[in-house]
């Protein structure tokens, strides 16, 4: 086992049988990552998402009965007083101010069409930048949202790669009125 694994609490469950991993092991690992490695809440969200999916698959495949990561991120956030500022939508006057700034700025006016589509339709960034001409019906004023463009960090410091994915859920596939 590597020194890094020992230092980060992996010895508590990294080499254990799947059925032996307990919530207390996950809790110790999460606390070690935050307290000793000083990881931020967004990083812990990513780590938790991976672990939760892996243990969820083990539950689905009947290797274990319960997912030891259930509610652990919530507990971590509460115990460490992580406060994530709640996002709020721009008000209509703020949207107008922003869109007028883009429209009238020599430096930023190339962004106007992108933000106009996003503000006018409520589409997400990945949905908007993934649009193709065939997704837009100019006769009916409709935009078909059926995929997203995702950027993946290569992890080797050499930029990123792109992939076209389907929306996260069937509800994400929709036909959007075009403004």
Task: Sum up the structure in keywords.
3-stranded antiparallel β-sheet; disordered N terminus; 179 residues; two-stranded antiparallel sheet; 7 helices; elongated; alpha+beta
Summarize the structure.
The protein folds into 3 domains: 77 residues, no CATH class; 35 residues, no CATH class; 57 residues, no CATH class. Helices cover 41% and strands 12% of the residues.
Give a description of the structure.
- With 179 residues, this protein is of the alpha+beta class.
- The chain folds into three domains: 3-79, no CATH class; 88-122, no CATH class; 123-179, no CATH class.
- It is built from seven helices and five strands; from the N terminus they run H-H-H-H-H-H-H-E-E-E-E-E.
- The protein has helices spanning 3-7, 23-35, 41-60, 72-79, 92-104, 112-121, 125-129, and strands spanning 136-137, 142-145, 148-153, 160-165, 174-177.
- The chain has a three-stranded antiparallel sheet with strand order 1-2-5, with no helix packed on it.
- A hairpin with a 4-residue loop joins strand 1 and strand 2 (142-145).
- Helix 5 (92-104) packs antiparallel against helix 6.
- The N and C termini lie far apart (57 Å).
- Residues 1-9 have low confidence and may be disordered.
